[in-house]
Specification:
Two copies of one chain form a homodimer.
Chain A (H helix, E strand, L loop, with lengths): L7 E5 L12 H11 L5 E8 H7 L3 E3 L7 H10 L3 H10 E8 L2 E6 L4 E3 L13 E3 L5 H14 L3 E12 L8 E8 L5 E2 L15 E2 L1 H10 L10 E5 L23
Parallel strand pairs in A: 2-8
Antiparallel strand pairs in A: 1-12, 2-12, 3-7, 4-5, 5-6, 8-9, 10-11
Helix pairs in contact in A: 3-4
Chain lengths: 253, 253
């Protein structure tokens, strides 16, 4: 039995402004951390996907989107903008379910989520859509490296999060889309439980727990898209993409 | 735009011993909180389902279970103990999926989870299974009232958590099974986003976020089944059961 783990502290980085395409996100984050006197060492920085996508220019004006016949058909079924459906289809590798005005997509990254992550809320301009980053693990790695080069210090992890709905349960919860500098899954299989019985099926989705915890401070109306988490074990390294369930063993695809 | 939210702190309550049926859980928790000098006020206490179930006697010796023909058939398919399958079937309202040695059940409460929550790890004795509490919301209310009567003070919330697997993503994440003294879902629909656009579909599963955050300190091998969370807004009141998705609008049932 381990000793009692140390406390965990979560702090929202204050005063990060609205992010525009091409913004220098590492500089904005470092400035916010300095304002809060957070050293960006021995912890994980959780950053909302939306500001990553905006900085990377993953923003599309609906006026520039020409919907396909398929997008028009689906939009008519859903009662929504065919240009939005067109973007959803472009981001989608496979439609998993449709109903109640929502398309549940498997994205080209392999995430399963509503509308392939295409989002019109908190977009930088009206009638603009924000898409998921092309490669959120690469975005996490790049942000981590930029911050380590300019003030952050090891051990230091970056997680990119987004809010997803879930089957069976109401309400959104933040999950990890990308990670760098931390193992996204902690594997306890084979270690003994408190009674000495071997733990089965006990892999913990640490990165998703961190994302959900950070989500407590990332309310969409609060303007706090980055949260610093201290007191956790920062070890290993791995991509979120590699932890997505193999479709062959997935009972819901 | 709100001001930056205050930091959140999570502390594992130290030294809670292995819980046996009939244990005085409020007394064990209060003693642990006193050891850690935690006042149990202005925060949420997240308690692992396992110790709730044990204290409530939701523990079954497999030797006392006679498997039905159906349980024997399914257990033969899965290569596992037919008495365990018998318990799973007794806890199940409807089988949602089966495969890869796992039964995904809709429990009699309405939760959708692996093996109806029947768990043989960290059981109080070998060949013993722990079942989910009969009514986790009632368990949360009772624990909250007992603690408020004996040292805790308002505002004070109790959440009962368990680790569930998810479709599409590997690894377990803690979710809320029961809640008392807090609104389990925060509804932001109708409030403006940062650009003044109305937020749609933005209900946040606060109780699940709190459970996932607490899970960071509840590693199964650590013996820390209760976590105190400070710095969050404690308002409203509601049952988890009422926040489960209506099967009629669920695309995955």
């Amino acid at each position: 039995m381990s000793s009692t783990p140390q406390p965990i502290h979560l702090t929202a980085l204050p005063g990060i402004p609205a992010v525009q395409p091409g913004a220098d996100l590492p500089a904005l984050i470092l400035a916010a951390a300095q304002r809060a006197e957070i050293p960006l060492q021995a912890g994980a920085l959780v950053v909302c996907q939306k500001i990553i996508s905006k900085a990377e220019g993953r923003v599309v004006a609906l006026s520039e989107v020409t919907p396909s016949a398929e997008a028009k058909k689906l939009a008519a079924e859903d009662g929504c903008d065919p240009r939005q459906l067109e973007l959803v289809l472009r981001e989608t590798a496979r439609i998993v379910r449709r109903g109640h005005g929502v398309t549940i997509s498997e994205t080209k990254h392999g995430f399963v989520c509503a509308n392939a992550g295409v989002d019109l809320s908190n977009a930088p301009a009206p009638d603009t859509a924000v898409l998921l980053p092309l490669d959120p693990d690469a975005s996490a790695r790049a942000l981590r490296e930029a911050l380590l080069a300019d003030g952050a210090a090891l051990p230091f992890a970056v997680i990119i999060s987004d809010t997803f709905g879930r089957p069976w349960r109401e309400g959104l919860v933040d999950v990890a889309l990308g990670s760098a500098g931390i193992e996204p899954i902690r594997d306890l299989r084979g270690s003994p439980d408190l009674g000495g019985r071997e733990l089965h099926a006990t892999t913990t989705a640490t990165a998703d727990q961190l994302a959900a915890a950070a989500g407590l401070l990332m309310r969409k109306d609060a303007g706090t898209p980055a949260v610093w988490i201290e007191g956790i074990e920062i070890k290993g390294d791995g991509d979120i993409r590699e932890t997505l369930r193999d479709p062959a063993t997935d009972l819901f695809r």
